[in-house]
From TrEMBL:
Protein name: OLC1v1009096C1
Keywords for this protein: Heme, Iron, Membrane, Metal-binding, Monooxygenase, Oxidoreductase, Transmembrane, Transmembrane helix
Repeat found in the keyword field: no
Alphabetized InterPro entries for the sequence: Cyt_P450, Cyt_P450_CS, Cyt_P450_E_grp-I, Cyt_P450_sf
Organism: Oldenlandia corymbosa var. corymbosa
């Protein structure tokens, strides 16, 4: 009995000592770090993140400040939530924070780190980025796909016209996703492969599953020692998805190689295979690199653009006066006798303002993609160690009341007479990020967003299904690598152009 008492006292004392030693070491380590919420032992701040982490981090930043230190499992993290702070990290110290953290899932779907998005900052990333900028996402290349876009958007509008003449409602969200998937597929593969079945799964669903899984917290990414246990089964699922992708990509490449008219590069497969065969690269560039890039272009382009349009059209439906004003602007340029062409988009100032305002409130990459410091540095007097993760809360920056008056309201007119643009120079509006790792697909995405949105607004008036009032439209978010509206948009189109 006495032994037991002594044993428990010793155990209690040891536990208390451990707790204080841990706290002491945390306090020492915190010296020089930015402020932030105190974490739990082991978990750190993981428990503070709910199903919409951008909103949780925004609330925490209101308490702790725009440069906040947190710890997710074993991973020290800086969360940035103001334009001024974002400029420091993405401009002044861009060279330090241009790294990307290792992400278990992406490793498998990127052919063991051969893609651009998740490759570490260095010569390999630089070459891949250059390749994209010079061969895939140039202005000329984007223009060369204009006939394809006109045809696909034309088919989409025709299907909406049929619904209009039948007076039935449509699931506009699903219709737009399928348009986005088709346009991405045609640009990248030259064919609409996404509705094909692979292992009982549609390929487009496999792409979406990867996007969904990538946004889920994976214990192995926060506790590297536990990685090999694959406690949530993520690695297993990513390996299975990677196999589905690989089978399809192999088939697509083989189809291209067998195709008789291959002399002319028409799509991304042709362009990348030509580059591979030319042997011009001074670094290794084989079929695995081609497949990694093809997949990456598909995953990054497929949903991001259409989710952006979904948010914008929903805001317009909530604000009929703004919808009318935009319709008048487009009618002024195009009339009512024909549909909008891409060449009409130039000079549609109000359309630009609507797109900016929608992307301010609803940047689909709410937290961007994580960056990582590649060396120690001091920012704003805070000491930040090498291998610290950096999260830019793009969503919070777009709603910062100290920069944006009445930030929660949708007011495109706030951009009248303002030079603020969304291309990464104005840090209060960075839906595509900024600096070295900013989005190389910006020009393509903006072309698609403006073109499809202009067509939807110009061709149709819209009635909401189920007697929903405009002001009651649900704007809740479903967080992901691409943050979409949680509810699909169901509407009845009413054709408004001359027959
Ligand atoms: C509205 C549509 C889009 C939005 C809002 C968007 C946004 C973003 C954001 C926020 C990032 C992260 C920037 C950072 O790390 O700081 C990013 C990266 C990237 N995006 Fe986009 N994006 C869009 C469309 C596209 C398209 C159409 C493509 C290609 C076809 C694309 C390709 C990429 C790539 C490859 C990266 C990684 C760049 C790197 O790590 O160097 N994106 N995008």
């Amino acid at each position: 009995m006495i032994i037991n008492w002594q044993y428990w006292t010793a155990f209690l004392l040891a536990t208390i000592c451990c707790f204080f030693l841990h706290e002491l070491s945390q306090t020492r380590r915190r010296k020089g770090l930015p402020p932030g919420p105190r974490g739990l032992p082991i978990l750190g701040n993981l428990h503070e993140l709910g199903k919409n982490p951008h909103q949780d981090l925004c609330k925490l930043a209101q308490k702790h400040g725009p440069i906040m230190h947190m710890r997710f499992g074993n991973v020290p993290t800086i969360v940035v939530s103001s334009a001024e702070a974002a400029e420091k990290f993405l401009k002044t110290y861009d060279h330090v924070f241009a790294g990307r953290p290792y992400h278990e899932g992406s490793w498998y779907i990127s052919y063991e780190g051969r893609s651009l998005v998740f490759s570490p900052y260095g010569p390999y990333w630089r070459k891949m980025r250059q390749l994209c900028n010079l061969h895939l996402l140039t202005r000329n290349r984007i223009s060369s796909f204009e006939p394809m876009r006109r045809k696909e958007v034309g088919l989409f509008i025709e299907s909406l016209k049929r619904a209009a003449s039948d007076g039935v409602d449509v699931d506009l969200t699903t219709a737009m996703w399928s348009l986005g998937a088709n346009m991405s597929c045609l640009m990248i593969f030259g064919k609409k492969y996404l509705d094909k079945d692979f292992e009982d799964k549609r390929f487009s669903d496999a792409v979406r599953e990867a996007l969904h899984l990538s946004a889920q917290p994976n214990i192995g990414d926060y506790f590297p020692l536990l990685r090999s246990l694959d406690l949530q089964g993520f690695t297993r699922r990513f390996k299975r998805i990677a196999k589905i992708y690989d089978d399809l990509l192999e088939k697509i490449i083989d189809d291209h190689l067998k195709s008789p008219g291959r002399e002319e590069a028409n799509d991304f497969v042709d362009i990348l295979m030509d580059l591979m065969e030319s042997g011009k690269f001074e670094f290794e560039f084989d079929r695995r690199h081609v497949k990694a890039l093809l997949l990456e272009m598909l995953i990054t382009s497929m949903d991001s653009t259409m989710a952006t349009i979904d948010w914008a059209i929903t805001e317009l439906l909530r604000h009929p006066d703004i919808m009318k004003k935009l319709q008048r602007e487009i009618e002024g340029k195009v009339g009512m006798g024909r549909i909008v062409e891409e060449s009409d988009l130039e000079g549609l100032m109000y359309l630009d303002m609507v797109v900016k305002e929608s992307m301010r409130l609803h940047p689909v990459g709410t937290l961007g993609l994580p960056h990582e410091s590649i060396e120690d540095c001091t920012v704003d007097g805070f000491h930040i160690q090498k291998n610290t993760r950096l999260i830019i809360n793009i969503w919070a920056i777009g709603r910062d009341p100290s920069v944006w008056p009445d930030p929660e309201s949708f007011i495109p007119e706030r951009f009248v007479g303002s030079n603020v643009d969304l291309r990464g120079q104005d840090f209060q509006l960075i839906p595509f990020g900024s600096g070295r790792r900013s989005c190389p697909g910006l020009a393509l995405a903006l072309t698609d967003v403006r073109f499809v949105l202009a067509q939807l607004v110009h061709c149709f008036d819209w009635k909401l299904s189920d007697n929903i009032q405009h002001s009651d439209l649900d704007m809740s978010e479903a967080f992901g690598i691409v943050t979409t509206r949680a509810q699909h948009l169901r509407v009845v189109p009413i054709y408004r152009l001359q027959k």
